[in-house]
Amino acid sequence: MKLALSVLALGALLALSACGDSDETAESSDSGSTQDVATETTDTAAAPLSAKQAADEIVAELNTIATQLESVTSEETAKAAAVVIDKSQAALDEISKTFSELSDVSKATAIAAVAGELGQIQQRIGAAMVQIQKDNPQLFETLSKTINELPSLN
After folding, report:
1. Residues 6+ apart with CB under 8 A from 76
2. Looking at residue 18, what is its pLDDT?
């Protein structure tokens, strides 16, 4: 359950971090090209990914987490899923650092482009967590350490 709440919090965090001040919002409407804004990066070396790349990687890692949770049917698959989810969480931490360095306009555009996918993945994760708790509560315990180690997204 904490994983589902954390994923929802991630969505909220990304939505909030995508909100810029009114000057930047005005800039985005004047740019004319959504693609140009989505691929804008900052000048710092700490941000090697564009906003679009970062958003796509966020979607890919969350998709991996959803797929792993959906595959849990035994103690063995729960342990294997926990390992993969840990790796995805580490990747999400790194992507989040890069993402935070990008401009608000870039973040807003990139997240808007993947909002539908993020919503679908959040639903998959939530449904998988409910299914695990309902059908195999003991397997949920196997995943609890991984779930409890999710980064705070507040």
Report:
1. none
2. 43
**Which pLDDT band, with edges at 50, 70 and 90, does 42 fall under?**
very low
Residue scoring higher pLDDT (140 or 73):
73
Q: What is the 3-state secondary structure (H, E, C) of the chain?
A: CHHHHHHHHHHHHHHHHCCCCHHHHHHHHHHCCHHHHHCCCCCCCCCCCCHHHHHHHHHHHHHHHHHHHHCCCCHHHHHHHHHHHHHHHHHHHHHHHHHHCCCHHHHHHHHHHHHHHHHHHHHHHHHHHHHHHHHCHHHHHHHHHHHHCCCCCC
| Long-range contact pairs involving 135-141 (C-beta distance under 8 Å, separation at least 24) | 136/72, 136/73, 136/78, 138/75, 139/72, 139/73, 139/74, 139/75, 139/78
State residue 87 phi and psi, 5-degree precision: -65, -40
Q: And the tokens for 128?
A: 């998988």
The larger pLDDT score, comparing residue 154 to residue 53, is at 53
Mean pLDDT of 134-153: 72
Q: Looking at the predicted structure, is the pLDDT value of residue 67 above 90?
A: yes
Length of the chain: 154
Closest alpha carbon to 21 in 120, 104, 101: 104
